[in-house]
Each structure stands twice: as structure tokens, then as C-alpha cells.
Amino acid sequence: xxxxxxxxxxxxxxIGYPDKMIAxxxxxxxxxxxxxxxxxxxxxxxxxxxxxxxxxxxxxxGEVCIDNKPIPDYSVFEKSRLISIVLSNRNxxxxxxxxxxxxxxxxxPHREWYRKLSAREQQSIEEMAAQLGIDRFMNxxxxxxxxxxxxxxxxxxxxxxxxxxxxxxxxxxxxDLHHKIEIYLLLQSLARSGKTIICTSHDVELAVKSASxxxxxxxxxxxxxxxxxxxxxxxxxxxxxxxxxxFNSAALRFDYxx
Length: 258
Prior knowledge:
By secondary structure, the chain is an alpha/beta fold.
């Protein structure tokens, strides 16, 4: 996909449920090749916004456009070639499948259903598995994996789908610090290579150091800007400072006393 303007656009977007509006008047334009972190407290609508962008959840009002076209106007097949998504619920994937089978299905949008994997596709699967450190348990069924191992499989599956837009809901949940850093470095590298990355995160320190843009969501409103602008304006610090926990804008870390 090539676009001169924003690849993801929202206008007067309201998200939530029929009996509960979570946030309203959400407006942003996300350019190709950028990495946007959606930040906020629990229950502020981060995951709901991500699902609305992917058309997995309907908006209350307003619109989401992908490449200047409203997302509901795309067919399921078209969306599968535009957007890949990693959700936080491991049960979205049948747990009796083996890791290799899950990764093999990820390339389905780019080939006929009856065709076997090509040598190049097989190589891509093996390289992705090695990159994310899941090559040693390719024959295990999903239900036997730890939450951290399952998270890596879900990320590998999304990357193998090879879409221009990658959405991730808490991609580093269940991972230790070393692997959290690896995932953020990978997402940063993917954005630099031209992919559009949008993820929700509670790992604020890693997100502000890695993402090019940020979207703060809370109290029914959303604020979108380059991450540096959110930091320098004090918006990040003001949002996340509470009690004896303060966000240090100069060091990009939380300071606290026990």
C-alpha cells in the first residue's frame, strides 16, 4: 500500500458500548511508517480503541478510515491483507493447534487456500520463529505454552501476515524485562522499515522511549501528538504522576519512594 496522506484517520470518533460511552471526539492522523503507543490507565478505552480501528468493534459514532476509505467498506479478505492484530486474549486462537500450524495459517491472505507452502514461505516461518525464540517448540500445542511463549507466537503470527498495519494489544504482557525490550526494539525497527505500528501499553517507560507518537486516553478524551511533544509539554508527566510516583520527563522513567 502506498499513500501520500495518513494511513489511519479518525474523525469525531466515539468508542464504547451501546449502554456506555468510553471516549468521544477522538481525532488523529497516523502516517505510514510510524509507531504509535496508546497509553492510559486501566479502563480508559485503550483496547476498545484498538479494536475499533480494526473494525472488530463498532464505533458509537464517527469514522475510522484506512487509506482514505472507511474501514467497514473493506471486505474481510481485504482487511486481512491490510491489518494484522495481536489481542491480549490467548483463546482467540484454537488451543489444540500446534505452533507450526498457527504460523503456517498466517500466510493464508497471500496465497490460494489449496496451495502448499512455498520454499520461501517455509523459510520465512523458520526465520521468524528463530527471531522470536519460538523455534524450539514449533511442534507443541498452544495449550501447553506459558503466557509469555503464547504471546511470542501471537506476535510471530501477526508479523508473518505481512500487512502494512500492525495492531497490538499489550504486546509485552507476560514477558520478562529482557524480552519486553526486544519486542519494543523489533516494533521500532519495523516502523523504520515502513510498517505502521499501533499498540496499547502499560509499559510506559519502554513506550515513550520507542514510539514516535503517543495517544493519551483518559477521562473520555484522547490526545495525539509526536511522543516528544507529549513529553516536553508535560502531558505524560501530568497524566501518570500520582502520589509519590512521578514520571521524570528528563530521564524518561518513573521516580518513586517507598
